[in-house]
Each structure stands twice: as C-alpha cells, then as structure tokens.
C-alpha cells in the first residue's frame, strides 16, 4: 500500500502505517462533539490555524451497498486516509462504503438508509473518476493548482495502466443536500470535467479499502482550502445520456443542440497553429461525427476555419468526411470539442435537473403561489425525520448569514415608522453580506444579494451609490427593479423573480417594502398575510434568507403592522426607531439565532452625489454604524420631557431659552395645570432632565436638537426643485444648518458628521 501527500508543492511518499488513525478515528457517532465544536467555531467566523485536511468532519459508513446499517463517525481526511488504506476484503462487494454526509433514520422499503430523502447535511464532496486515462497524481496536481484540499484514493479496479480513483474534498461548513450539485460541478471544473456523471447523485456513496489479489490501494493528500472557500472555479455539469460515463470529457457524441457545440468550437483558437491541416482534420472529424454529416454542422465548422489567416474553403471541404460516422462511444466527436473548449476557458451551462436524469427538486410548493395547476401525485415518503438525542447533539448547527442574527433560509422583517431609517439599515446589511464584511460587530458569510426595490427604486439607487462610495464596490449586490406585484396568483413578477433566484442562488433577498410589493394586501387578513409568508418561505427554498421591510403598528407593541400571523412566522424581527438620545436603533424583538440584546445603533451619513441640472448639490444618505462609545445607552424620557422635545422639534430643532419657556408654559403642552408656576416648574424639570440625558444641548443661549422631517427619503433628490418641501417653523439658525428644510445638510455647511444626523 502507498500513501502520498502533496504538501507545499512537493510529492512525498509516506508509509501507509504513518497515515493510520490519529486521535481515535473510531470515535462513536454519539460522542462526535469534536465535530460540533469545530463546526461551531467556523460558524462563529473563527479562522483556526488547523489545515483543511485536519478539520474534523461528520461522515457516515455503511457496511455494504445494501446500507441497512449505518455508523456515524467524526474524523479528518488525514485520519480517513489511514482508514481507507487499512481496510481489506476478499471481494469488492464485501468492502464498506463511505459518505461525507449525515443521514436520518428513514429507510426505503428495502431497508436502506442511503437515499436522497434521508440525507441530512453534506460535510464534504466525494466524486468518482473511472476514465482510465488521467492518473491519480495528475488529478492531485490539478487540485493543487486550484488550491483545493483533498484526499484521493484508488478504487478496487484500479491499475497503473488503467487508473481509476475517488476524490474527497472537505467543506468549511455543512450544507444542505440541494447545494451539493453545484459544488460537485466546481470540483469537476477544477479537474477538467473528467468526473463520472454518477458523482452528481446526491446520496452516492463509494467503496473503500483493499481487495485481495488486486493492485494495492494508493492514497494521496492535497493540502489547500475547503472546496467551498475556493473562488473562481468553472462549473462543469454532465449531460443527459452521457455515453462517456466513466470516461470524462473527450470521447463520443454529446447529443446536445448545435448551438452549444458551436459555442464550444468558437472558443477554441484558430489563429495559425503549425499543424494547420491536422487541426482541421481533428475538428472536422469531430463536427462530422457529432452531426452525422449534417450540412448545418459543416457550416459551423467552415465559420471556425474562416478565422485562420490561411483559410481555404477547398481544404475545409477536403477534411470533411464523406461518410456518416458509426457513433461509437470512443469516437472523436462533440465531447472532444467540449474538452478542448473547457481548456480554453469555456464553461458548460448548467443543465436542468430533468436533463441530468435526476429527480427534479419538488416545485409543488410554488404551484399555488404562482397560480400553476399541478397534476395530483402520491404523497412522497421520507419527508419526516426522527432524530435521537445523540443525533441532535452531533447534527451541524444552522449555517449563519449574519452571525448571531440571520441564518440561511430565515425569514426576517425590518419594520418601523415612515422615516425611521429601515430603508437605510437593510441595504447596509445587504451590502455587508455581498462584501463579506462585518456589520455591527457581526461576521457575515459572503454571498450574492437581491435587493428588490419595490417602493423607491430611484431613491435606492442613490443609497447604493452612497454605500459604494463609503465601502467600495460590491459586484454581488444586485438592485432588482421592476417588481410591482407579488400578490397576484398569476404574477409575472413573482414567476420571473423565482426563476432568477433558482438560477442565480442568492444568499439574501430583501423585499422593500412589503406594502408596495404586495399592492392591495389586506394586512389584517390572516389569509392575505399568509400568502406573504408563503411567498417569502418559497423564496428561501434554494438557501436564501429573506428580509421583508414593513411598517410598524401605532401601538407600543414593537410588532410589524398587520395580522399577527406575520410576526409569528418570522425567525427574526428588527424594530427600527430613533431613541430618546437621538440615535437610530434597531431593536431585535425576535431572534431565533441569538440574543435580542444586541445594540444595533447607527446614524445617517451623507455622501456627495455631485450636482443636479441646476448645479445644486445632490446628497446621498447611508447608514453609518456606531460603536458603543459613539452610541450612548438608550434613555427613557418622561411624558413632560417628551412634550418639551416635541416643542423643540416644532420650532425647527433650535430655539432660544426664552422662546422655549414661553412656548411650553403658554401652550400647556408640557403641563395642563391652571397654575403658571406649576407649569413653569414642570418645564424646568423637563429641560434639566433632557440636558442630563443628552437628548438636547444647551449652548449660546439655545436649546438644540436635530431631527428628521422627511419620510423614508422620498424627496432626497427631487426631479423638480420647486416641489421641495420646507418647514416654515425653522429658526434662522436651523435654516442655516438645514437649508432645504428636510434635514439635509449641504456638504459645504460643515464637515462635522453630526450635521448629517438629521437625515432619516
């Protein structure tokens, strides 16, 4: 037996005994806490120094292909290499099988635990190569160049002359079964598209060990990153009816449309190779075999030949075979073109599940939502799960999107009064996810974001510009426009959005706002609000979390507006409002992923948006998070203090002490007492309290406060300057600070960020 390791770029042979089990590879599944701790560390965003080859993975072993028994294990790929090398059996059918995944307790009618419906979580990707041409060392070298950590081992039928092997790659965190296919496609792309199509089958497991009188088992370790951490890998999927099953790309017909083969051929350079005629003969033969001599295939071939500087139609015709090919699996045909095109950067488009020959993901949950009538079918078995306490302990934790607050597939709601700042907080969170940047001290897992601007697409473009100026570009952030109705049963907007989500698989979807995206919604109706929840849950099907932006109730309950069914269905709820200290805060009223005591505090920062057609400055608002030192603790105001604060607001945010006392005492808003002295004493106590609580500032004979005068930035940049609202109650000092009456401070007024706090 031989064990090899690619480490720091060198191949070194190591005795199989040295790669034997370490730290107890026979750890019982019930005691697999080591995996849980390692996995939890990753969920917390930690970056342990341990190599991906030494990361503890949960996996399942089956004694044979019948899989009527299963054993859960927890070990690293380095430990697993020793297990693979140490197992022997007289025949292949007596060898055990392994799977880098966890399974439940649901059996098929034949008693097998190994089926797609029983798969819980995927902790790594395993795949098979049986093309008998690419050596295991060559495969390892390709993985090393891509930076992917892996364990490779030879299969029972492997020989040096006819190589066959398996590859196992760890993941940084466990994923759902539906996410596995895309990861296999990435691995296939790194290896040049050589993997056997059965590698894409979700619950496919593989034999491991030594068969008596067969070639000794060889193992190789490749150091690198977990597969899901490697960026920029091409995705290579198999095609239906792939006659090259087990051979990889390079032989036989594809049976695919001419458009796809033409796309691949045109990717291959034809700018003057030394063996011009030999190249023409190769691709002429391949195109002829693929299209069985059809004239349209010759026309594509001729167009490709035309790229050559010495193009000659007569030579092009001379290499075109005169007879139809036999269509044998090993003939030079479309797969030869596809293989060469991939080597030049071409990517095969992902096929549908039906094209792959797999059972399609159950889309019946969309039938009622998008108004599609589906034929009745028998209820599928295996949808229920039954976990023992030990399996609950060892099962992977939920994969976070924003650590401690939002997990994958969550439905959340950010709600608040008009102008509260909710439509500033949500794009800030989405932008952080798109960049993989911390938000309010919470780590984020990078991924693409769909921000559905149903209410104010124009204004949201300005907010995105502000975020780009402050934090740099975020190519994975997508502002989705054109959505106006997700409520109708036959909504084309919903159908198009669902199709985009299924194809592009964003990690976060924001719908801003619920009222505009679901026009005519009877919010107090359980049925109507149930549809909103159904749409949101349906959009999470492919792993995305969904955030709904909504209004709050007038009552002091801290719940989203409308039927209580919405709040009950949420995983996370964030109530946005300005607290009594003038800081905007997002209060977690519900959080299934952590504490509700987290302080989400921010203020409004202003970015320069240039000038409009009249030369007036354009201001772009954005959320600017505050740390603990910048955001004072939440303070409570008395009724009298709130009344005085309202008077200062009405006066324009600044008022002299004499005017304020007159307004408070004469207006009887602070105190309704008939005694003027009593009203004066109440006013004095309220003013003293406001100053002590830093709700107002007294300086130069003025009581000052900055506040908002706009509703969710409707008029941030008005196309008609004559339509800009002004506040007639502003004092002259306040007008200098808030020249447009909206709380928008021109950039040339002051460089202090505090001058921007009034924008909301």
Automatic annotation (TrEMBL):
Biased composition (Acidic residues): 751-760
Listed InterPro entries: AAA+_ATPase, P-loop_NTPase
Gene3D superfamilies reported for this sequence: P-loop containing nucleotide triphosphate hydrolases
Positions of the UniProt region annotated as Disordered: 721-760
Residue ranges of domain AAA+ ATPase in the record: 408-580
Listed name of the protein: AAA+ ATPase domain-containing protein
Protein's organism: Paracoccus thiocyanatus
């Amino acid at each position: 037996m031989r064990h090899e390791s690619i480490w720091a770029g060198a191949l070194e042979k190591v005795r199989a005994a040295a790669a034997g089990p370490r730290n107890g590879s026979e750890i019982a599944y019930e005691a697999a806490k080591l995996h849980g701790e390692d996995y939890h560390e990753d969920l917390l965003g930690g970056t342990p120094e341990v190599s991906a080859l030494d990361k503890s993975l949960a996996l399942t072993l089956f004694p044979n292909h019948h899989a009527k028994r299963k054993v859960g294990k927890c070990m690293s790929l380095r430990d697993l290499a020793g297990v693979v090398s140490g197992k022997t059996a007289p025949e292949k059918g007596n060898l055990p099988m392994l799977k880098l995944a966890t399974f439940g307790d649901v059996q098929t009618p034949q008693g097998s635990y190994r089926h797609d419906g029983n798969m819980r979580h995927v902790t790594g990707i395993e795949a098979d190569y049986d093309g008998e041409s690419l050596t295991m060392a060559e495969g390892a070298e390709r993985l090393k160049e891509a930076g992917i950590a892996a364990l490779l081992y030879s299969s029972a039928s492997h020989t040096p002359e006819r190589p066959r092997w398996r590859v196992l790659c760890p993941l940084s965190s466990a994923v759902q079964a539906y996410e596995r296919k895309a990861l296999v496609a990435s691995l296939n792309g790194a290896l040049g598209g050589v993997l056997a199509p059965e590698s894409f089958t979700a619950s496919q497991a593989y034999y491991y060990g030594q068969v008596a009188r067969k070639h000794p088992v060889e193992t190789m370790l490749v150091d690198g990153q977990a597969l899901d951490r490697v960026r920029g890998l091409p995705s290579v999927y198999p095609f239906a009816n792939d006659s090259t099953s087990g051979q990889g790309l390079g032989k036989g017909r594809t049976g695919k449309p001419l458009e796809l083969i033409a796309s691949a051929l045109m990717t291959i350079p034809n700018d003057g190779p030394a063996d011009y005629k030999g190249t023409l003969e190769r691709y002429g033969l391949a195109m002829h075999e693929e299209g069985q001599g059809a004239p349209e295939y010759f026309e594509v071939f001729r167009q490709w030949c035309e790229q050559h500087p010495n193009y000659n139609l007569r030579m092009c015709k001379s290499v075109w075979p005169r007879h139809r090919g036999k269509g044998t699996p090993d003939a030079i045909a479309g797969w030869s073109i596809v293989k060469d095109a991939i080597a030049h950067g071409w990517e095969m488009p992902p096929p549908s599940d039906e094209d792959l020959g797999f059972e399609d993901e159950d889309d019946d949950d969309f039938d009622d939502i998008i108004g599609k009538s589906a034929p009745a079918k028998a209820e599928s078995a295996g949808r229920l799960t039954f976990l023992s306490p030990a399996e609950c302990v060892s099962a992977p934790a939920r994969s976070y999107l924003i650590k401690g607050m939002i997990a994958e597939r969550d439905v959340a709601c950010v709600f608040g009064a008009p102008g509260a700042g909710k439509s500033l907080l949500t794009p800030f969170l989405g932008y952080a996810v798109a960049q993989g940047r911390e938000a309010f001290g919470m780590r984020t897992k990078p991924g693409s974001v769909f921000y559905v601007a149903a209410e104010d697409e124009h204004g949201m473009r300005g907010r995105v510009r502000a975020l780009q100026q402050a934090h740099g570009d975020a190519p994975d952030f997508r502002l989705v426009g054109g959505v106006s109705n997700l409520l109708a049963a036959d909504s084309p907007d919903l159908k198009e959005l669902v199709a985009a989500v299924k194809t592009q698989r964003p990690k976060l979807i924001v719908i801003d706002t619920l009222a505009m995206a679901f026009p005519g919604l009877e919010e107090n109706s359980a049925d109507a609000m149930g549809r909103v929840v159904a749409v949101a849950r349906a959009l999470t099907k492919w792993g995305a979390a969904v955030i709904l932006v909504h209004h709050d109730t007038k009552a002091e309950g801290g719940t989203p507006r409308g039927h209580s069914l919405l709040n009950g269905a949420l995983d996370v709820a964030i109530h946005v409002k300005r607290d009594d200290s003038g800081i905007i805060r997002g209060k977690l009223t519900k959080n299934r992923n952590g504490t509700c005591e987290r302080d989400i505090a921010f203020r409004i920062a202003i970015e320069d948006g240039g000038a409009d057609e009249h030369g007036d400055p354009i201001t772009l608002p954005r959320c600017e998070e505050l740390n603990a030192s910048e955001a004072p603790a939440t303070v409570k105001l008395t009724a009298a203090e709130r009344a005085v604060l309202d008077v200062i607001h009405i006066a324009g945010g600044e008022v002299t002490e004499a005017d304020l006392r007159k307004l408070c005492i004469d207006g009887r808003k602070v105190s309704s007492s008939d005694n003027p002295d009593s009203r004066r004493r109440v006013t004095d106590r309220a003013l003293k309290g406001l100053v002590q609580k830093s709700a107002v500032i007294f300086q130069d004979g003025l009581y000052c406060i900055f506040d908002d005068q706009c509703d969710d930035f409707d008029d941030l940049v008005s196309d008609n300057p004559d339509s800009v609202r002004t506040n007639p109650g502003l004092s002259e000092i306040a007008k200098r600070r808030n020249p447009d009456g909206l709380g928008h401070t021109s950039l040339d007024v002051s460089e202090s960020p505090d001058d921007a706090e009034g924008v909301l």
